[in-house]
Amino acid sequence: MKFKLSISLFIGSFAVIIFIFSAALIAIIDYRVTAKLDGVLWTVPAKLYSRPLELAENIEINIDNLVRELEMLSYIEVSNPERSGQFSLSKDNLQIFLRGYKDQRSGIFNISLGNQKIKRITNQLGLSEDLIKLEPIVIGGMYPAHMEDRVLLDWPEVPQILIETILAVEDQNFFNHYGISLKSISRAFLTNIKAGEVEQGGSTITQQLAKSLFFTSEQTIKRKVMEAIASLLIEFHYSKEEILLAYINDVFLAQSGRRAIHGFGLGAHHFFGTSIKNLDTDQIALLVGMLKGPSLYNPRRNPKNATKRRNLVLSVLKRNFNISDAEYENLTIKQLGISAPNYRTETKYPAFHDLVRLELQENFNERDLRTKGLAIETNVDPILQDALEVAIVKTKNQLINKYGTKLNDLEGAAIAVDISNGEVKAVVGSTRPSSYGFNRSINAIRPIGSLVKPFIYLTALDQYKDYNLTTILDDSRLSLSSGGIIWEPDNFDKKFHGNIPLHVALWQSYNIASARLGLELGFRSVETMFSKLGIKKQFQDYPSLFIGSFELSPYQAIQAYQTIAADGFYTPLRSIREIKDIKGEIEFSYPYSIEQRIRPEPVALLKFAMQQTFERGTARGYPSKTIESWSAGGKTGTSDDQRDSWFVGFAGETLVLVWLGFDDNRQTPLTGRTGAFQVWKNFIDDINPVFKQKTSLPRINYVWTDMNDGLLSGKRCKNSLLVPFIKGTEPNITPTVRRKCSNRKETSDGGFLERLKEAFEGGQG
């Protein structure tokens, strides 16, 4: 009796333990289920997008670059666009079948072209359109450690045919079971035996979701039991629509490098270059068919397998009366329609990403960037970015061919900015642009060499009652003593040039004349100008500052030149336009701001001198008409012992700064002209900037002057040059030797008309 009681007590205790253990296990699984499925379902990385390209009537456009961008977006050129993602191009017309983006509807649009301009845009009804937008390019993301990526869909965004196809193939009894279905397992077994291949799965959609979210792929009884419990709990807590939506957003479809492609939303973009709403039934069938083997049925790697699997799924839809026999026949003969691999699958612009992160740090933490699914619209122009990367690599190879393997370790940085609004369009941080690591565009602090000189000369020109472009500067030997040290600067050519006009000293980049000018102006005046240009840095009062011992990063330097290129208007540089949350609501915006810090007239005089850098100075080589049409200007820079090669130049609406040098600061064989300028030239030649209309200022008057003495001259006089002056500051003396060839009536109030007249006459000033 006592023995029987002990057995009963043992069994009862064991049962209680089992019950408690089971209850605890269920409670743990239940907590995991609700914690995962409540609120934010997944960690969704922030996505970085390029700027969307806007096309409007009468805007200047480089047709070649437009076609390049269409190709980047995986648009396919055909003779007659019939599907979204296609375009055709003739001599004077571009026809695009847009995919649609935000407020931009999908459809066919005709763009009439002529003289590098868009003449007219019409829709498929023949009605005029003021503006159309190309969707932006995904340029990367800020991925969590597991590198999962997805585009979340809400229930209204899910096409009905996708729901029907998933249910037909994966779980026909989905709305009639509670997470586990013996009927489904049996039916799938019989169907697959009859077909001789896998048409349907045995696991319910709920089971598949539970396995994906909470368990590994190990085939054990323990895992199956826990999966079953999780499935029942999911069904208990959530509606069928919620479960199906979670499944649609979670399924694994492909591996792209280190990035895992999850969900039908991202799958549509990855394989077809468009959103799920734009897919046809055959494309939906392909994606659903891939669930049984994402690698085996990958349409890029195994198109035959993928086609066969797609057609099998279509046959299931036909059998279930989701599509007609005629539709089935038409769909099974269609090409897969896979777009080219996404132009950007992971971060390919690491230097630009570094700049974006720098701006984001002010308002967002790292966790939010990796989990909240933010959409970050940047200012990067993929055409300019690619061209800048190609230019710096191409130039390095050219320099190695010229100077030898000692330049194998040559490094560099380059930044391109839109002059009109301060938008950063491209950033390169290395001569290996795709490499991650030290970003020289924002982190390399280097002596800027002669790039400092325009800041000094602008300080003088801003004092226009005392200085103008023909003010005579002294370029004779200079010797200064400070703290027992003698400082005697040299010109690059090791010569002295005596008395020369201010503008000649600048475009010839004479060190001694520049140093004397800086000392004459005083350190405080120069420091004030630095501040106006956006340079937030103090400096020591050393005279070597005036010829380039001053250190800046490329990013700091181009901010200063942005103010110059923008005619004295300061605009903080921006890499980001706006940030939206996962629902598409604006989370944060980076508004355009502008402040006039320098009068436009002194800046206009400086830009004239910088234009002469191209025409006659250290960056000569371009035809005058080309420089004039671009409204171009620039400045070379070379630090002591040629350790740094710099160039900054503007053409059209684009400002570009380039640095080349060694990380260990050793000497290079390069000057600003032979090194950095060549990167700029390769870049500009590639993008071919559009014409920029030169604006005239009412207070600017153009006068013929002599390039040697700065006094009055005439266009028929030797060494004469048409030079701008702020009215009332023009020279008033004509040397006797030039009275015969000069004519005071040749003065011009604007210069542009005078030059245009010269072009017709065949002359050159």
Overall geometry comes to: elongated
CATH class of the largest domain: Alpha Beta
**Order of strands side by side in the largest beta sheet?**
9-1-13-23-24
Query: Do you know the CATH architecture of the largest domain?
Result: 3-Layer(aba) Sandwich
Query: C-alpha Rg, in Å?
Result: 34 Å
Q: How much helix is in the residues?
A: 25-40%
Determine the strand fraction and express it as a percent band: 15-25%
Assigned CATH superfamily of the largest domain: DD-peptidase/beta-lactamase superfamily
The main pleated sheet reads as: 5 strands, mixed
In total, the number of strands is 30
User: What is the terminal separation in angstroms?
Assistant: 125 Å
> How many structural domains?
4
Mean pLDDT: 85
CATH topology description of the largest domain:
Beta-lactamase
Could you say which structural class the secondary elements and strand pairing correspond to? alpha+beta
Low-confidence stretches: 747-765
* Tally of DSSP helical segments: 24
